[in-house]
Design brief:
Layout lengths: L1 E3 L4 E4 L2 E4 L4 E4 L2 E3 L3 H11 L5 E3 H9 L4 H17 L6 E6 L3 E6 L2
Antiparallel strand pairs: 1-2, 2-3, 3-4, 4-5, 6-8, 7-8
Helix pairs in contact: 1-3
Length: about 110
């Protein structure tokens, strides 16, 4: 992952996120993200190549822990994956019983 302009732009493969303008692109094409999707993507981008635990993601997004928030996280990840289907080589992957990561596609 590359960072530019004082960490205002995050990159992972063909996925680029501009933190100042709240814009995400894949291959230069804009990706329409909700606020929560954008924030989750940013969290994962900052940890590219690593698995982020369910608890850490829920705590960071909703300042909570527990079953309902994990379900919300699951739905959010599902929507985000659909919108980032063309991202390469990094994709949001599930690591069972652990969490999610923006990891190289296999």
């Amino acid at each position: 992952m590359a960072r530019e302009a004082g960490d205002a732009v995050l990159k992972a493969g063909n996925l680029v996120v501009d933190l100042e303008s709240y814009r995400a692109t894949v291959d230069g094409s804009p990706v329409d993200l909700t606020y929560q999707e954008f924030e989750l993507l940013t969290l994962l981008l900052k940890q590219t190549g690593r698995v982020v635990t369910y608890d850490d993601l829920v705590r960071a997004r909703w300042n909570a822990a527990g079953g309902r928030e994990v379900r919300r996280l699951t739905v959010l990840v599902c929507r985000l994956r659909a919108k980032l289907a063309r991202s390469w080589p990094y994709q949001i992957r599930t690591v069972r019983r652990r969490g999610y990561g923006l990891l190289p596609a296999t």
